[in-house]
Each structure stands twice: as C-alpha cells, then as structure tokens.
C-alpha cells in the first residue's frame, strides 16, 4: 500500500504505481479532492465529555469519489482510458491519540451522525480524516475493472478546541 500523494496507477509500472511524481499516464492521488473534517457543535469548539459529531467536507479542487477522469488518448497509444476513484474507507484521527476504525461513513451532524468522539481533557487537537482510495478503470468505453491497489491520503488538520464547563446555580 502506498502512502501520501503518489500514483494510484502508473502506466508501464504495474498496478502498484510509481512514486517518482512523473506524468506517465497514471492517476496521481493529488488529483483527488482533500477531505477535511468539521464538527458539531459548530465552529470546531466542544466541551470535555460532550459527544462531538464529525462530518467530511470535500475541497473544491480535485475529484470526489465516483467522478471520472479521462486521460489524454495521445498519451495512451490512442485509447481512451477513464479512471473513477473510489473511497475504500475513512479513518478519523481525533488528535488526542484516538482514532476511529476504518469506516465507509462520511459522518454527519446531530442527531443522526454516526462518527462521534468525546474528549477526556481540555486542549487543542489537530483532527483529520485519512482517506483510503482505490479506483476503477476502463478502456475505450468497455466494462469497469478495479485497480488492485490503494493509497492513503491524509486530510488537512482541523483544529478542535475542547473546553471545560462548570455548572453554576443562579437566582
């Protein structure tokens, strides 16, 4: 398994791809969109012990899961090659030493979100989501076939501020 922004598929280098960053007809993972996390409560601020709901947002640049990239036929010996990236899993990294197991959930907001974490101590935490990508390809409009490889692309860090609260009785 490759890590970081390397090729998902590199023509001529086999299914495990190359890591030299060349433009040899493969699909570099820097063409996929960045997945960043946001939280509810809003503003990426929460309280110690409070259930914090996570959800994924995609960057405007790059391909999201299911979008199709068409490689220039001139670079593929005159054949039209299409690549369709797919998310294999998301791993939410909460920044406090805890992370979720791999999941296919993009999370959500209260009350239906299913990616939830509670922080034990106050502080500032760099949360992110790591996306494990794979892809399908087809040649000249034929049947889609899986690319037998994957790449893990860490998302950008989102600072989550965790505060403490103290109950006070008032008249």
As residue ranges, the low-confidence spans are: 1-28
DSSP strand count: 12
**Helical percentage:** under 10%
Average pLDDT works out at: 81
For the sheet with most strands, the description reads: 7 strands, mixed
Provide a count of the helices. Answer: 0
First and last CA, distance: 61 Å
Shape: elongated
Radius of gyration: 20 Å
Strand content: 35-45%
User: What structural class do the secondary elements suggest?
Assistant: mainly beta
SSE succession: EEEEEEEEEEEE
Account of the protein in words:
This protein is 0% helix and 43% strand. It has 171 residues and is mostly beta strands. Strands 1, 5, 7, 8, 10, 11 and 12 form a 7-stranded mixed β-sheet that branches. A 3-stranded antiparallel β-sheet has the order 4-6-9, with no helix packed on it. A two-stranded antiparallel sheet has the order 2-3. The protein is elongated. The termini are far apart. 25% of the residues are buried.
Give descriptors for this structure.
single chain, mainly beta, 171 residues, 3-stranded antiparallel β-sheet
Structure summarized in a few sentences:
The protein is mainly beta.
């Amino acid at each position: 398994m490759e890590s970081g922004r390397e090729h998902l598929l590199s023509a001529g280098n086999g299914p495990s791809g190359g890591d030299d960053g060349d433009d040899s007809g493969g699909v570099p993972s820097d063409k996929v969109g960045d997945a960043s996390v946001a939280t509810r409560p809003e503003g990426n601020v929460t309280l110690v012990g409070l259930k914090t709901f996570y959800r994924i947002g995609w960057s405007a640049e790059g391909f999201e899961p299911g979008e199709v990239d068409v490689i220039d036929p001139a670079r593929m010996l005159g054949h039209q090659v299409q690549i369709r990236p797919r998310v294999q899993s998301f791993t939410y990294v909460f920044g406090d030493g805890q992370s979720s197991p791999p999941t296919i959930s993009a999370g959500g907001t209260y009350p239906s979100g299913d990616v939830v974490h509670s922080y034990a101590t106050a502080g500032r935490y760099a949360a992110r989501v790591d996306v494990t990508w794979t892809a399908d390809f087809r040649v000249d409009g034929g049947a889609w076939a899986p690319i037998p490889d994957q790449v893990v692309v860490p998302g950008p860090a989102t600072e989550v501020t965790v505060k403490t609260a103290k109950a006070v009785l008032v008249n």
